[in-house]
Amino acid sequence: MHPKIRVAVVGVDGVGRFWGARAHVPAVRATPQMELVAICTAHDETAKLAAEKFGIPMYFWDYKDAVNHPDIDLITVAVRVRYHHRIVKAALEAGKMVFCEWPLGMNSQEALELAQLAEQKSIQTAVGTQGRFSPGLSYLKRLLEQNYIGRPLFFHLTHFLPKFEIWSDHSWPAKNGEANDVLFVATAHSIDSLRVCLGEPESVIGTQETLMPQWRLSDTNEGFEWTATDTVSCQVQLRNKIMGTIHVSHACWSGTGFRLEVYGEGGKLVAAAPGYVSYSPIRIFSAKNGERERQLLIPKELYKVRSINEKDPAFSVGQLLHYFVSARASKSVFHPNFRDAYSLHKIIEAIDRSSVTKKWESVGTNSI
User: Fold this and answer.
1) CATH class in words for 132-303+341-362
2) How far apart are CA 145 and CA 288, in angstroms?
3) Rounded to a whole number, what is the largest CA-CA distance in the chain?
4) Distance between CA 319 and CA 130 in Å, rounded?
5) What does pTM read for this prediction?
6) Fold annotation for 5-130
């Protein structure tokens, strides 16, 4: 067995503008048990450029060559969502471990197929809801498990962000039907953070809208229509009967970031981040027995990645990879895996159905 996990990142641009280059490459390199040996893009010239930029020995323009290479153990996938299924399926069929960015697929059916294939082959998988590995969120979970505020009564979650940059050569994230809107991404990441701390959703009722359809391309200033959902609001009941509200929007010029408030019989706990929950530092605040809200010091042992600044997009991905490697070494089940991704897809689809039926929708008996 090779002493290190040999990794290929699928989706690395030569300019370093997108997520594979900004997060996956530095996160893999910050993981001592891993070795970045290859990258893959959609074109030979961009693959060569990226390999030269990052000093990577192998490059591919066809993902099939990458997933079938004998000197690669783990494939990470950071490409357009509609290509996730075909690339991940090919990697699993080749017997490779896979870390795929969220969403795992375009829908729960694709996610379920990939989860079942990985389970049939006993392949370790990971999905990119890395926000759950933020030291702040891990600390919130620990405090709740220790009954710091007693029995939780209800929660209130907001995730208010500005619209992200859209480029003329990369405009698909703003289009409807790409599984990249605020429901599939910012809301899903918020819900994953919620469920890892408080428990799985059982039913939801909500709505989704596009409040700011007129926008401009970042590089040309040309106007275009933003057709993807930019705002979601819903009420959620968890399986443990705790209820709460979620409001997420990309239509905020001066967004306040992520904030999860949990109210219990003995006080409240707050997890707050200035930006996106998946890659901005989360701080924890508390108020007990009539006290004023105060910040709590996060234990140092929860910071597993020391070589990447916590404000860097690669930090939480590095945290995820640390736990991924640890689970592999101990032969334990890693979470979030593809089965967890399937259950998150089911939650998102329940919100989507509710926005049409205007009724409470069950998440479904097949979620975990």
Assistant:
1) alpha beta
2) 16
3) 63
4) 8
5) 0.96
6) Rossmann fold (3.40.50)
